[in-house]
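Annual report, structural modelling task.

Input specification for the flavin-adenine dinucleotide complex:
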Amino acid sequence: MVADAVVVGAGPNGLTAAVELARAGLSVQIYEAADTVGGGARTEELTLPGFRHDPCSAVHPFGIGSPAFQALPLARHGLEWLHPDVPMAHPFPDGTAAVLARSVGETAASLGPRDAGTYRRLLAPYIGHWESIAADFFRPQWSGVPRDPYRFARFGLTGTPPLSLLALRFHDPKARGMLAGLAGHAITRLSQPFTGAMAMMFALAGHERGWPVARGGSQAISDALAGYLTELGGVIRTGVTVRKLDELPPARAYVFDTSPTALARIAALGDAYRRYRYGPSVFKIDYALDGPVPWTAPEARRAGTVHVGPTYTEIGDALSRAVTGRPPHTPFLITAQPGVADPSRAPEGKHVFWAYGHVPNGWHGDATDAVERQIERFAPGFRDLVLARAVTGPAGLAARNANYVGGDIGCGAFSGFQTVLRPRLAAIPYATSRPGVFLCSSATPPGPGVHGMSGHNAARAVLRHLRRTARR
Ligand SMILES: Cc1cc2nc3c(=O)[nH]c(=O)nc-3n(C[C@H](O)[C@H](O)[C@H](O)COP(=O)(O)OP(=O)(O)OC[C@H]3O[C@@H](n4cnc5c(N)ncnc54)[C@H](O)[C@@H]3O)c2cc1C
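The model returned the following structure:
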């Protein structure tokens, strides 16, 4: 029997695409290489029994704010968002911290009197408008009319220039450091266009929706999507690495939650994505700790996410080293302490802790000491609490998930035209040169993150294609 759609890869985007297609009444099968679903949204006991680590994503500003997830009954399938007191803290060597709080006022106050007004004015036009901003930001930027053209244009004018220009509006090194940390999620140089928009989007998400974790771990997001898919009649097969299109059962459409280069190999698309570039990688450490991280700054002890790297210059240098292929020296760290909001992650009194710094694509070195020296600067005594650590560099990331080519967790560099034209210049970025074959991974708009929007947008392209072919 011919399936309506076969999806390859059960990451957040593959699962969301499958769910959207099944909701439209199609028969859907999904094939996943790993033994469990989830891709970059999974949870495992990586270190010691009872310590539940998120090897990839941990914090979900774009998950809770995703228009696709909001429309699905994921709570009924077990997904619960848990909010830390403070979404994000950015500590400094003097023991103080800037905070991204739920309230714009509290955040502005933490940046100091010279910059509080500038921060408020930067975010004010968008507060209360997350739904339209998210709808416009999470679709291919050049397709269709924005839902709120005025706000979207204004956001674009402010955010299209690089963070290096946006930061010039601020005087205090602490404010500039916090903005650089927010833009650092794009894993690119701070002089890249659109890094300003990244910083604003992360800040806005914090104020409008928070930066929550999922109760029990990020696996809960994937399990909720998989549970709903099964309820809709979808079939999930795990432990199957797809190498050739003709290994798959006959279907009216194929949707790939893979890298573009893997798709080109599997579906014999030739050199369709030969210009596609992969970006820097990360060096990730998951810790089992004997207690909470002893941050000097009290705000950091209450935050779900802590950015470690005090100044704009330090963060910019760390990112630049990774982009230009140089080993890390003083890495900028993105860290998460899910236990602040979700005590279920570790035995009583213990904690899991998640940290990564940026390294060149394919780098083979060991950054453990550099990462821990950096944490010790802001949390003296940290090393004494380490019960166990699971260390994963670029090769380990790529081995765990084929989408992380060379360890690039964004499945494509955030640079040049590729920043907005992913995976290549095309009217429908999800379609390929082969009719009925689609791409839905984070290599397509809107890009990385656990939000399912690439899967959602790709599913809509598939449905349009199937309606057209049915009419013919
Ligand atoms: C260390 C790390 C930290 C991160 N932190 C965050 C965070 O805190 N918040 C956030 O929002 N995002 C975070 N991300 C990014 C986020 O995880 C990804 O952007 C997101 O998972 C992308 O979803 P996806 O569905 O496109 O691909 P993936 O999640 O990568 O899923 C792709 C799936 O396809 C499968 N697959 C690939 N090729 C084949 C094949 N040939 N046959 C069968 N199956 C195949 C893979 O096994 C995988 O399960 C992080 C990622 C990493 C690695």
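The chain has a mean pLDDT of 96.
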